[in-house]
Amino acid sequence: MVEMTTTPRILDGIAIAGQIKAEVAVDVQALVARGITPGLAVILVGDVPASQIYVRSKVKTCGELGIFSEMLTPPESITTAEMLALVADLDAREDIDGILIQLPLPKHVDTKRLLEAVSPEKDVDGFHPVNVGRLQSGQPGLAPCTPAGIMEILRRSDLPVAGQNAVVIGRSDIVGKPAAMMLLNASATVTICHSKTNDLGKVTREADLLVAAIGRPGFVTPEMVKPGATIIDVGINRVTDAAEVEEFFPGNAERAATFAKRGSVVVGDVHPAAFALSGAYTPVPGGVGALTIAMLMQNTVTAAKLRRGISLEKK
Ligand code: NAD
Fold first, then answer.
1. From CA 193, how far away is CA 16, in angstroms rounded?
2. Which residues of 250-289 are buried (b: 16+ CB within 10 A; e: fewer)?
3. How far apart are CA 110 and CA 119, in angstroms?
4. Is the CB of residue 283 less than 8 Å from the CB of residue 10?
5. Is the CB of 176 under 6 A from ligand 1?
6. Ligand 1 within 6 A of CB of 169
7. Which residue's C-alpha comes closest to atom 35 of ligand 1?
8. What pLDDT was estimated at residue 3?
9. Are strands 165-169 and 98-101 parallel, antiparallel or unpaired?
10. pLDDT tens-digit readout, 218-233
């Protein structure tokens, strides 16, 4: 049985995202004063409802921060060749600094080829192999938004990274791998775990800093956590079973009300009982998820500056 040692600190992703967006808005104003309006193009293929919600939110945030945005909505039937032509057009446009292809794409479209067709200078998602390489070698470039958001949460919450034992569960190209690389660049001692890791709990119990990016609700249980650790929960999982909701949030009236209203609640990859042991943690919702769009906005401004040779002064 593991004893609780401290009252955990809740890392408020919404507040941190608000700070970043305010800073981006100031940056945008400074660029506009020089005659440059940063521009983001978002390509949304077909009618995936979740993607539509994300894209709408991205376009709305652009408007709030003074970033020009354009949404392209080709039909589900678009071919890889037609998509490549669309990307080439956007790539050639002077008023577009960032190109975002909302994933997932229909199965018949070659996603990898498309992501590589966006020029690295306009790759605001940070998925192009050139940007992956720049991140690895510590050069300025465009880094994936969700892991960049994790680093901002840690930095702005004054949580130590250098010298910490950081364990990342998950090795996806979008979250796990880049998060591990960013933590390494910030001088943490990093271990990456995945579905084939032996005795996962033994590894995670050594973590001062635990990042969970798995995609399984409540996967990280109290036995897997070192008391006092910082836990970053990247997971966004929709739970639709009433018994499961009660298991995760026993007697929690707010979650029960959400479930009654929507028929589901969002649960992270970390079991709420595990948060209770931590020193600090990001809640779900309201943690890492809140940062992703803020970081996309920041990347769009960074792209606008890098492309024109404007320095990226540090705050
Ligand atoms: P993914 O499916 O691409 O990768 C999941 C990783 O988890 C894999 O590397 C796999 O090896 C690992 N894994 C699976 N089962 C495991 C097990 N039993 N033990 C150890 N490792 C295991 O997922 P992803 O795209 O990296 O996303 C992970 C989670 O983060 C999802 O819940 C997703 O919704 C969420 N997410 C959130 C944001 C955001 O906050 N904006 C962005 C992206 C993803």
1. 28
2. eeeeebbebbeeeeebbbbbbbbbbbbbbbbbbbbbbbbb
3. 16
4. yes
5. yes
6. yes
7. 235
8. 55
9. unpaired
10. 999 999 999 999 999 9
CATH topology agreement for domains 32-122 and 144-292: yes
Confirm or reject: Cβ of 193 under 6 Å from ligand 1: yes
Mean pLDDT across 189-209: 98
Q: If you take atom 41 of ligand 1, which residue's CA is the nearest one?
A: 289
User: 285, 239, 236, 288: which is closest to 262 by C-alpha?
Assistant: 239
29 is catalytic: no
Give me ligand 1 centre to Cα 287, in Å: 16
The CA 299 to ligand 1 mean position distance, Å, reads 23
How does pLDDT run across 48-73, given as a tens digit for each residue? 998 999 999 999 999 999 999 999 99
Summarised one tens digit per residue, pLDDT across range 124-172 is 999 999 999 999 999 989 999 999 999 999 999 999 999 999 999 999 9
User: Does residue 49 have a cis bond before it (omega within 30 degrees)?
Assistant: no
Q: Is 80 exposed, middle or buried (0-12, 13-18, 19+ CB in 10 A)?
A: middle
Structural element, H or E, at residue 299: helix 291-307
Return the number of other C-beta atoms located less than 10 Å from residue 15's C-beta. 11
Hey, what are 66's tokens?
Answer: 């003074």
Tokens representing 246 are 């009660």
> Distance between CA 208 and CA 203 in Å, rounded?
11
Per-residue pLDDT at 33 exceeds 60: yes
CATH of 144-292, one of 3.20.20.140, 3.30.930.10, 3.40.50.720, 3.40.50.300: 3.40.50.720
CATH H-level, domain 32-122: superfamily: Leucine Dehydrogenase, chain A, domain 1 (3.40.50.10860)
Cβ(197) to ligand 1 under 6 A? yes
Bridge partners for 167 per DSSP: 191, 210
- Assign 288 to helix, strand or coil: helix
Q: Is the pTM of this model over 0.90?
A: yes
Which residue ranges make up each domain of the chain?
Answer: 32-122, 144-292
